[in-house]
Design a protein that fits this description.
The protein is α/β, with parallel strands linked by helices and 201 residues long. It contains eleven helices and five strands; from the N terminus they run βααααααβαβααβαβα. The protein has a five-stranded parallel sheet with strand order 3-2-1-4-5, with helices on both faces.
Length: 201
Amino acid sequence: MVEAVVFDVGRVLFQWQLRALFEKLVDDPAELDFVLAEVVTEQWHFEHDAGRPLAEMVPERIALFPDHADLIRAYATRFNETIPGPVPGSLAIVEELHQRGTPLYAITNFGDEFWDGFRPTQPVFDLFRAIVVSGKERLAKPAPALFALAAERFGHAPQAMLFIDDNRANIDSASDCGWQVHHFVDAPTLRGDLERRGLLA
């Protein structure tokens, strides 16, 4: 039996792509590809997810890529523009689960400062009883310690919770920690799984 459903946020509930911001700022396709591959990369961004403050990251990156200083600053000040909108169909699932009384939680790899700027813009998060944010904990998925912290905070045994994430490494780690899991591909597939589990009609 699943007592609670636990969502990832990026690419499960909300689309996320650095390109969505930088294609507004860089006209040349080759230059845009360079920026995303070398300057403002997902790997570098992950340092903020894991707890490094922007006050350290941004000046350090500008020192490495001084010709791209304005773009690096835009990453820090315009991050919400890397989130074009919800993943189609996902928020409706959240709302239906809430209406059925299912306890909802989230575990997200999200920078502390960026979360503080994004969370207030999305009332759907009001439906969640608790959200574990990697940047605030300075501990990121797929670290087993983050799943242990979340289970303690959420108040349910891992085996009684269904964790939904698009990242295979995160899914595998949660499964190894005893959680039930769903590897997210799209909302219709998730809906089918939730129906088979009796969580949606």
